[in-house]
Write a structure and sequence with these properties.
single chain; alpha+beta; Adenine-n6-DNA-methyltransferase TaqI, Chain A, domain 2; four-stranded antiparallel sheet; 35% helix; elongated
């Protein structure tokens, strides 16, 4: 019999369904004490099941259960928890390697409790392979949000190796995936170090220049204590013109006809998040001449530096062509004493300061008086140009190393997924592996 991940199985293996290997139980909807519960207890929820199949139990919520419910919805070592619903997490599976006395689980979780001596680790690895293959998404109920219901989960086809082989496969995958996971974590740490190095290079060049022996003076700035003595430090409005953006009224349909003007909005801020791009690219949205004329938005010249101020705060880039923006950006047109590139790099050097100035509980923002009060170093223009050329070169080198490391991690994850699939479907005989 064929299955989602196999066309044939080794001799001695059977093909069945999840319900042949484990009982499937859906958790309880979150309810208050008024619902009849008499025990307040911690519970497993979708957020506790991580993408890598690890349980994260440092963020725990509690709800009310009856004694009978808590007994029925217990979690113990050997169980497998599978996310039932959610936009990004449905189908995630994790093996429970320790008893969780007094815990229950929410109705976003299905618990698989192995029967007949079946190894829960084998089930968890198999479901992980299925999810990576895309089978779970195609198989799940999809209305407004995907759901892997208990009934559908129970009917998923699964190989049924002899118990001894299940344990051998699980032991092998525990060992090999741990090695790969350690390697991935090491590479992720390398990326963090490279990003820290990148930020340090930017702050040093923008704040200190490129001449190591130059005399320094106190800067009065948050992010750099000193600047070269021959530099000025000025309020940003002395060296650049501040502009805001706006959204033409949606209640006037005529404002949204014949739209031809590039309009940079939060839908485009992804272009700036990793700090690798200098110039803004094509915008998702356009506005019309009429809409522009009847709003506070302005058509700003090429070379204008944008700084995101709402929701995604503190990302910067330069307009490569004339554009307008939404009200989610502060825009700066540099004067004769400031180059666009140097101002962009200055905003990136100011990252910690900008983050400290954000206000708001739900939606963080940088308000106009705060942005208008920014103070920036102002080297001679020729020195600004040398600094920006240096930063273009140095950050490009670091970005290349980051990209290579990210690709290494991607390949390691692909290797991990392929290894799990091969082992749980009998394509490799792990009993021969040392």
């Amino acid at each position: 019999m064929t299955g989602p991940l196999w066309t044939a199985l080794p001799d001695g293996w059977l093909a069945g369904q999840i319900k042949n290997a484990a009982t499937v139980t859906l958790g309880k909807m979150v309810q208050s004490k008024d619902s009849g519960g008499d025990v307040r207890a911690p519970y497993m929820r979708a957020a506790n099941v991580q993408p890598d199949g690890v349980l994260a139990l440092d963020d725990v919520n509690e709800m009310w259960f009856s004694e009978a419910e808590l007994e029925q919805l217990s979690i113990r070592a050997g169980d497998v928890v599978v996310v039932e619903g959610g936009q990004g997490g449905f189908g995630r599976a994790a093996y429970v390697d320790e008893d969780l006395p007094g815990w229950g689980f929410q109705n976003s979780i299905n618990r698989l409790r192995p029967i007949g001596g079946f190894d829960g680790r084998f089930i968890a690895f198999y479901l992980t392979a299925l999810r990576a293959s895309g089978f779970i998404r195609a198989y799940s109920n999809v209305v407004s949000m995907p759901h892997l219901t208990a009934e559908k989960l129970a009917r998923i086809p699964i190989p049924l190796p002899p118990l001894e082989e299940q344990r051998a496969i699980a032991d092998y995958l525990d060992r090999e995936t741990a090695r790969i996971d350690t390697l991935i974590k090491e590479q992720q740490r390398l990326i963090e170090i490279l990003r820290e190095r990148r930020q340090a290079v930017i702050e040093s060049a923008v704040g200190h220049g490129l001449e190591p022996a130059v005399s320094m003076q106190p800067s009065g700035l948050f992010w750099t204590a000193e600047v070269p003595e021959h530099w000025a430090v000025a309020n940003i409005r002395k060296v650049a013109t501040m502009k805001t953006g706006h959204t033409p009224s949606r209640s006037n349909p005529e404002y949204w006809v014949d739209c031809t003007i590039p309009w940079f909005t939060l839908a485009d801020v992804w272009q700036l998040r990793d700090g690798r791009r200098t110039y803004l690219g094509e915008t998702t949205n356009l506005i019309s001449e009429v809409g522009l004329a009847n709003s506070a938005a302005e058509l700003l010249p090429a070379g204008t530096v944008v700084l995101s101020r709402t929701a995604s705060v503190g990302f910067s880039g330069i307009m490569a062509m004339a554009m307008a923006t939404s009200q989610d950006f502060w825009n700066w047109i540099p004067g004769d004493r400031l180059t666009s590139k140097y101002l962009m790099w200055t905003f990136r050097a100011m990252r910690s300061e900008i983050q400290s100035l954000m206000i708001g509980s739900t939606h963080k923002t940088i308000y106009q008086p705060t942005a208008a009060a920014f103070r920036v170093p102002v080297p001679p223009v020729d020195e600004q140009e040398r600094i920006t050329a240096y930063l273009d070169e140095q950050t490009a080198k670091i970005d290349t190393l980051i990209a290579e490391t990210e690709r290494f991690i991607e390949l390691a994850r692909e290797r991990r997924s392929a290894l799990i699939t091969a082992a749980v479907t009998g394509q490799i005989d792990v009993r021969e592996m040392v």
